[in-house]
Amino acid sequence: MNKIIRQIGTKFSHIPPLVSTHFLNDQMKLHDFDERFQVIDASWDLPSAARNTYLEHMEKRIPGSRFFCIDECCDKQTSLPHMLPSTSKFQQYMTHLGVSNNHHVIIYDNSPKFGLFSAPRVWWMLRVFGHEAVSVLDGGLPKWISDRFATESGEYNTSTAEENPKFIAKYRPELVRDITFIKENMKSDNGSQIVDARPKGRYQGLDPEPRPDISSGHMPKSLNMPFMDCLKNNREMKSKDELLSTFESNGVDISKDLVASCGSGVSACIVALSAFVCNGKEVPVYDGSWVEWATKEPESIIKS
After folding, report:
1. Domain over 7-163 is classified CATH 3.40.250.10
2. Which listed residue (73, 230, 262, 269) is catalytic?
3. What is the CB neighbour count within 10 angstroms for residue 104?
4. Residues 6+ positions from 48 with CB-CB distance below 8 Å
5. 195-204 pLDDT, tens per residue?
6. Beta carbons of 174 and 132 less than 8 angstroms apart
């Protein structure tokens, strides 16, 4: 069993960016758990999966958790999928979920294929907006269920958003990269390493993209580190030593600057989380990722 973390004054003792199901279950036994933690279900999947992750959440979830919709808490003024929302919109959304700045947020997802897939996106979003007290549940809901911990279903029994303490966000631009940065970075021989988290077939241009109007292939000078390489048995994240070996085997020098990219900015956050687990390194994410690059720079696409 993991040691139960206790509060000292208003501060938490160190909680790692990746926590186990046993850790969370132990914390939930404490009388002040609701004051100190908020659990978020960040389940998301590609449109082609035809899932309704909100309904899945209402049918089975970790007790007390709330649902974060990646496709709702985003910039609605762009055609690109789930780009970061404004600071004010993020504040309103987190306040509505009942998350305060005093909460340590634990995020999970419920991927039938991966126990850890979309949760790192919301981990990264919270850090982008200045909330560093956040962890990802290793193995997600599938691991929680396999460990036979309690679940709940049905409508929430909770306060209205007006009664929730306001969440205050502080945007950190250093954790976000845009297409202008990527284009300028390509001109440098000593720029950041662009690490593409898509599967190898899509990176090489051999397999189609899940979005039919987007060509596969990759950006010039980018490196491929498929997000699945960060997981063991497609369920839980590899150990620190295994992750370091994974970065090295994919030609990524983790001691140098990285920018994570993928199809639409979701699985890139698994690479960002992996680097953070290894050495606390903050890795920015190219939010537009391949959807933006392939749409706006089609002449630069490499297939090999």
Report:
1. yes
2. 262
3. 18
4. 210
5. 999 999 999 9
6. no
Copy the structure tokens of residue 168.
């205050």
Beta-sheet strand order (sheet of 66-67): 18-19, 134-137, 104-108, 37-41, 66-67
CATH of 173-300, one of 1.10.260.40, 3.40.50.920, 3.40.250.10, 3.30.70.1060: 3.40.250.10
Q: Are strands 104-108 and 134-137 parallel, antiparallel or unpaired?
A: parallel
What pLDDT, in 10s, does the model give residues 33-81? 999 999 999 999 988 888 999 999 999 999 999 999 999 999 999 999 9
3-state secondary structure of 99: coil
Check pLDDT > 70 for residue 3: no
Average pLDDT of the chain to the nearest whole number:
93
Confirm whether 278 is a catalytic residue. Answer: no
